[in-house]
Amino acid sequence: MKRRQFERAGGERAGGERARVRLISGRLKEQRKKVAAPLRRGVYLLPATITSLGLMAGFYSLISAINAHFELAAVMIMIAFVCDGLDGRVARMSRTSSQFGVEYDSLSDIVAFGVAPAGLIYTFAVRPLGLWGWIVSGIFVVCSALRLARFNIQTGSTDKNRFTGLPVPGAALMIASLVLAYSYFELDSPRTLEAVAAPLTVALSAAMISRVPYPSFKSVNLRRRAPLEILIGVLVAAAFFLALPQLTMFALATAYVLSGPILMLSGEKMSKKVPVLRPVPADQARSTLAQPANDRGKTGSLSHRLDTPSGG
């Protein structure tokens, strides 16, 4: 009898301890959620903040071009380019990917790499052409928007080692580096500038919406050990950039713009044609519109696409 009472008391004591442990564990989980929630929101806000800085840099570039501060406008486009690369890498490292990030990054890109470069090339070079200058710069804006829209639709269905068409940041960087190179040599030949800038802008616009393959650096892993030749090349490029930043940026931008046609000449085929103007079935459209707003917004956190640095 005494043994049974002892075992019963021991069982009650063990049950009480387990209940106490569960209570403490529950409180720890609640406390962890309270601490982790603000941190998680901060992680989501970080890539969006970088994208916002790039957007503001693009807008400031447009204002500078209107005020005839052309070199400053070109530098602002390059700052936006850096921000566009950083937000994608931060999003990949923090795993904060959502549809909101895709849309917000595209809207930022159309201002920083579409409207701002078009305004810069118009005010700097093609304004004397009158209506034709406006048309040339307007075509650049339209083609950059089409390129970004196509990129968003084709994400996940194309080769990650290749871009389909010239990326919008690459085209913007070409225009910005042209302005810096022209200013570096202190040239004063408006006619020659018009003759070069107008065809170049049209060619960049056509390259953006083409299916010419361009190298993508998404698969580059900075943590992986690189060959000695690549390390030496990076150091030489950095040295040239520090010594002659304007000419180095112009050379790098020109090399990347020409890399697509060079790939084509070396035997690489055009990227496969992916239909982008597919009609949406009526039942799918109705189901999407009928979906509750909170369900549609589950992926709408302040975050960015996982596999896109700068892509469009």
Q: Can you describe what's shown?
A:
- The protein has about 300 residues and is an all-alpha fold.
- The chain contains ten helices and two strands.
- The protein has helices at about 1-65, 70-95, 100-125, 130-155, 170-185, 190-210, 230-245, 245-265, 280-290, 295, and strands spanning about 160-165, 215.
- It has a two-stranded antiparallel sheet.
- It is globular.
- The chain starts with a helix and ends in a 16-residue tail after the last helix.
Flag low-confidence runs.
35-39, 285-310
Give the SSE order as H and E letters.
HHHHEHHEHHHH
| Range of strand content | under 5%
Shape: globular
Secondary-structure class: mainly alpha
Q: Ends: how far apart?
A: 80 Å
Task: Summarize, please.
This protein has helices at 2-66, 70-94, 99-126, 131-154, 168-184, 190-209, 228-243, 245-265, 282-290, 293-296, and strands spanning 162-164, 213-215. With 312 residues, the protein is an all-alpha fold. A two-stranded antiparallel sheet has the order 1-2.
Descriptors for this entry?
312 residues; two-stranded antiparallel sheet; 2 strands; mainly alpha
